[in-house]
Write a structure and sequence with these properties.
Rossmann fold; elongated; binds ligand PMT
């Protein structure tokens, strides 16, 4: 959102207090923020808070009664890349749907050539009322995007649908609006997380993968317009956004089965999962009792899922693997690139501080099948996802 200009309209509902958090998130992400408050909303949030957090004067009235200075709503609308109205009360919603214009916020809405996004907030019966539904529908027809209200406890003490979406959710919608949809029309398979290979009903062989790297790739690809299928081993992570289809698996063989069902229909595969190379030969039916000093478990090789995908790759498909190493990063990475028939390999090593498992950062180098090597700095996993997808874009036709 760096440098993007977001005009934030605040109307008079209790959820107005949450706007302080939204401004902070937007500013942190690099957006420029200006705010318009309706006169009623300044009873719910102080203009001083809004102007301090946004770093800009707050616009409330058409003109300042003391100085006579006019606030130019047309200029505000032209300044904005995006107009976000949150919270949107039933009253302002109704006025917007009719095209009324008796305050600065409404005049600015009517002057807006760019996109408007609204986040309604009201009590559950008001939100469920046919006139509210009709007005929301009218706004949608007029090209406004609606961030639906959520369910939960309301200011009235009642529980139900009508709460304004959380600031993080609104910020995610705003970020999505500014994201270029250069992967629209592409179907992407992402593998993520560890696999668990059962020893008995209680224990398993696993690894430290949290899934964060793969999920960051899936979410970024989805926000850039791709249809994403995320085949994930066990993690506590959740996916956001409706362009990601999540398929949960536990073992390597289950992951292979899902990949085999999907791969032929995909344009791109990015395999970030940390798949167990071996699994116990047999799984004990009962919990293994503690008896002897040592316990031997016979292991057998798991299928190599990425290798299978490489063997079944069409000329139109692009396949990206990962290599996690503790030594000889480039040599081992290059060998995996060739032996698994990949287009690109993303290499990371546990020798680099902040790289690899579990944390929020990673440091990668990407080698392609034309021997181009690019090394990146330590970055957040979502920024690393961006570097990977930007590199892959050169391959996708
Ligand atoms: O999940 P995080 O906590 O965010 O950590 C991220 C990560 C360290 C797991 C990730 O950055 C990473 O390196 N993933 C690959 C880990 C791995 O298993 O690397 P490998 O070098 O053993 O495997 C090479 C490639 O073959 C990988 O793409 C792997 O998904 C794939 N593979 C491996 C074995 C196997 N049986 N089947 C496979 O598909």
């Amino acid at each position: 959102m760096r440098g993007k200009r977001v005009l934030l309209g605040v109307t008079g509902g209790i959820a107005a207090y949450k706007i302080a958090y939204l401004i902070r998130i937007l500013k942190k992400q690099g957006a420029e923020v200006k705010c318009i408050l309706t006169p009623a909303s300044s009873d719910f949030i102080s203009p001083l808070v809004v102007s301090t957090l946004s770093g800009n004067p707050v616009a409330i009235e058409f003109w300042d009664k003391k100085t006579g200075v006019w606030t130019n709503h047309v200029e505000l609308a032209l300044w904005a890349d995006l107009f976000v109205i949150a919270p949107l009360t039933a009253n302002t919603l109704s006025a917007m749907s009719l095209g009324s214009c008796d305050n600065l916020l409404l005049a600015t809405y009517l002057s807006m050539k760019g996109k408007t996004i609204v986040a309604p907030a009201m009590d559950l019966d008001m939100y469920a009322h046919p006139s509210t539904k009709r007005n929301l529908l009218q706004l949608e027809k007029d090209g406004v995007s609606i961030i639906p209200a959520e369910s939960g406890e309301l200011a009235s003490g009642l529980e139900g649908e009508g709460r304004m979406a959380e600031p993080e959710t609104i910020a995610a919608h705003i970020a999505d609006f500014f994201t270029i949809k250069d992967l629209a029309g592409k179907k992407i398979l992402v593998t993520a997380g560890p696999t668990y290979e059962a020893i008995d009903p209680v224990r398993f062989i696993g690894n430290h993968s949290s899934g964060k790297m793969g999920y960051a790739i899936a979410e970024l690809a989805a926000s850039r317009g791709a249809e994403v299928i995320l085949v994930t081993g066990p993690t506590s992570l959740k996916v956001s956004g409706n362009r990601i289809q999540r398929l949960d698996v536990v073992s390597a063989r289950e992951m292979l089965e899902k990949v085999q069902q999907i791969w032929a229909t995909c344009d791109l595969g990015i395999f970030a999962a940390a798949v167990a190379d071996y699994r116990p030969e047999t799984i004990a039916d009962e919990k293994i009792k503690k008896k002897e000093e040592t316990l031997n478990i016979e292991l057998t090789k798991n299928p190599d899922i990425l290798k299978w995908a490489g063997e079944h790759k069409l000329t139109t498909q692009v396949l990206v693997g990962f290599a996690l190493e503790t030594s000889d990063l480039l040599k081992n990475g290059e060998s995996k690139l060739n032996s698994k028939n990949l287009n690109l390999i993303v290499m990371n090593t546990l020798k680099d501080e902040g790289a690899g498992f579990a944390g929020d950062t990673n440091k990668v180098s990407i080698l392609d099948d034309r021997n181009n090597l690019t090394s990146f700095e330590l970055k957040s996993k979502s920024e690393v996802a961006g570097d990977i997808i930007d590199t892959v874009m050169k391959y996708l036709c």
